[in-house]
Amino acid sequence: MRPGLSALALALALAAPATAQTDPMTTLRAAAEQGVPAAELELARRFEAGDGVLQNFARAAEWYARAAEAGSAEAANRLGRMHHAGLGVPQDLPRAIALLERAAESGKADYLNDLALVLESVGADDAAALARAATLYRQAAEAGHVDAAVSLGVLLQDGRGVEKDPTAAADLYRGAAEAGHARAQNNLGLLYVRGDGVAQDYAEAARMFQAAAEQGLPEALTNLGVLYENGFGVPQNDTLAAELYRQGGQGDRARAGDAGPIYDPRLAPPPTDAAGLKALEKAALAGDPVAEFQMAWLLLSATPREPRRTMQGAILMRRAAEAGHAPAMANLALLYFEGTGLPQDYVLGQMWLVLAGSGGFAGAAEISALWTRRMTADQVNEAQARAEALWTAQGVSK
């Protein structure tokens, strides 16, 4: 690797205050290490989000544990969720439930809902856990938690953990749907299609699916497509149905960057004239990171994609990323995720996203969250460990 990451780290360091005494992160670390609970919690949050530090769930868990021991309900909640997912810590369901129970004792609706979600996930093998989940969802819903209201609606609709009551489910969905909750809108639409708990009404179902589809919910796009294909509640339209099916099938892919490479908004658009392109190519071949990025972006944006150009674009994007260009790091991550011009590798993709976030790429957290859903906890943990190892190898203080 070229020494670019070190250059990036130096640039970031120079952008910070010159003295350790005035460096916010140094002050925060010192307070956390002295056992100040609020500092322990804030440092844990920073490590979990990758805010001002490399994202590292294992380090976040360490600080959440310390803050939880000091009585922080938020820390107990977040650490419990990590143990449930196995992110940064071993997956441990009893430990997760114990921590989430401790947090839920605070009565905060979010924590009641989080505990209910975990209990519902084990409810297939434990009727008491499912009944407790329903109770917790109800408590959280009564406190105004919309997600909990929708989850309770699902249990009522299916008769899991509670007596089956589709009418009550519809009432819960309706309230959440009016507040713009996409999942509630989709679920209420399905009840209107089936005439379950409400009078059958395809036109109202279409209205609900349309509202959820406008928020990008894949299931709603597909359900709306079914109505258009069959002419239920809407004019029959095979072309529109096919487009809705296509959009629904994409799911998170476009939002995750699959629609094409991401351009650096700080830069002027790349040249399109022959002379400008020739100068850009010359600068890229000479190792200019910005030129490498722009040239890579042009090659990867070309349609239709041609394998040789795609490989060239991937090589240039990697060079720009290794030189410390954060948007190039994010694009390189997407190439690894998709296996475009490079062997598909989710671990390396996530590693480069962690580095991109620390390099200042604003969209890294959102993209990372979307791709994390497709990864195992072990893959996410390995990616973060690799990012830290690479960062450290470049002589960067964490």
From TrEMBL:
Top-level taxon in the UniProt lineage: Bacteria
Provide this UniProt record's keywords sorted from A to Z: Hydrolase, Signal
| Source organism | Maliponia aquimaris
Question: Transmembrane ranges?
Answer: none
InterPro entries listed in its UniProt record? Mitotic_Regulator, Sel1-like, TPR-like_helical_dom_sf
Signal peptide boundaries: 1-20
Q: What is this protein called?
A: Putative beta-lactamase HcpC
* Enzyme Commission number(s) of this protein: 3.5.2.6
Catalytic class of the enzyme: hydrolase
Query: Which Gene Ontology MF annotations are present?
Result: beta-lactamase activity
